[in-house]
Amino acid sequence: MLAAFEEELACPWALYHVRRTLPVAKADPTRRGRAMRSVERVDVGRAAVLGRRLQRVSKRRGVPVEVDERYGRVRAWVQRRGPALPTVEELMVTAPFQVRDKKVPHFEREWAAHCRSRP
């Protein structure tokens, strides 16, 4: 099993742009509703190369970075979710190439609305 996991990590990796909206539940304004997510592949390459590139760009831009030394994943937090709902989060992340682009048709409208409602 470990060999299969290591083989997957050795595959091509990608750099992804991930955005999430975290709305208020319609039935209960004290709870979080169903999140929406947009995932877009930005680049493809070797994990280490993509990770170093993301770290360099993030440092220049003053964006906080998390590095998972064990698996090589790098996350750059463009915008962390806020404590109050509704909220949004946005990050750039490296991960194995298997993740496909996905976005529901009305995501951009919801993203814009949630970004406007932030304090």
Notes on the structure:
The protein is globular. The chain has a five-stranded antiparallel β-sheet. The protein is built from three helices and five strands, in the order αββαβββα. It is α+β, with helices and mostly antiparallel strands and 119 residues long.
Question: What's a quick, concise take on this entry?
Answer:
The chain has 3 helices and 5 strands; from the N terminus they run αββαβββα. The protein has helices at 2-9, 47-61, 107-116; strands at 13-22, 36-45, 65-67, 74-79, 87-96.
Let me know the number of strands: 5
Q: Determine the structural class based on helices, strands and strand pairing.
A: alpha+beta
Mean pLDDT: 90
H and E string: HEEHEEEH
Counting DSSP H or I runs of 4 or more residues, the number of helices is 3
- Proportion of helical residues: 25-40%
Oligomer description:
single chain
Low-confidence stretches: none
What does the overall shape look like?
globular
What topology emerges from the helices and strands here?
Elements: H1 2-9, E1 13-22, E2 36-45, H2 47-61, E3 65-67, E4 74-79, E5 87-96, H3 107-116
